[in-house]
Amino acid sequence: MNIMEMLNLMPDYIGKGIMQxxxxxxxxxxxxxITTYVFGRRSEINAVxxxxxxxxxxIYEVLSGKLEALKSLVLIPADTHEAAMQELKxxxxxxxxxxxxxxxxxxxxxxxxxxxxxxxxxxIATKRMYFDNDVLIQTMRFQNYFACLRRLLVVxxxxxxxxxxSLDRKEVASVERLxxxxxxxxLQNELTDQIDKVVNTMKNSFKNLTFDHRDEIEYxxxxxxxxxxxxxxxxxxxxxxxxxxxxxxxxxxAAALGMAAIMESDNQQKK
Length: 271
Prior knowledge:
It contains ten helices and two strands. It has helices at 3-9, 12-69, 78-90, 110-127, 133-162, 170-207, 221-225, 232-235, 239-242, 244-270; strands at residues 73-75, 102-104.
């Protein structure tokens, strides 16, 4: 006697009960499988999002520390400070003397300024994928501002490099250091503003954490150079851009002084 024959011999209410039990059991299995799959999958996704969010916060914390470290002050020696003030005065550039001898460490050495620029630029470039829209745009503004500041030293160095003169020569190094101090006197407050904008944007991001992907950005010439674009619309109002002719006069004057010092030194050696 098979199972179907046994079921046929049973009263109707027993057969119906067994069928209902089978249906309930099967439905329970199906519901359990769906629940396990759906919620298990959602749990995995949330775990990944949580790991990415943690990484994002770690990157913001490190970047904030690097930016704040740029504002570490050093006391410029009195003779260097007086020489810088005198050079700027002769060029018709007024500097508030109050605390003008207290500058960021990067303005005490062109080498340190270059190293800090390259280090920060590399860090931001490699971590950019974790930034949300606002942080991304603000860090790119900062990168471009810092790059233009560093470019001023490159402009100073180019005449010496083109004539195969070592930048390590005492005459060149001393003038370049003085130039870096002068740029600090002129632009330190503005660089502080650029740093604070990035840090404050990251703080706002902390308060509005989201898993949403940021908008895709096309890094075109227009994106970086359009006066109404997200980068230049902010930077074009900075002193570094508005006073660029005045600032370039400081750079070219320093280059001329460096060349004159080399010529004088070489002439003395020939005698």
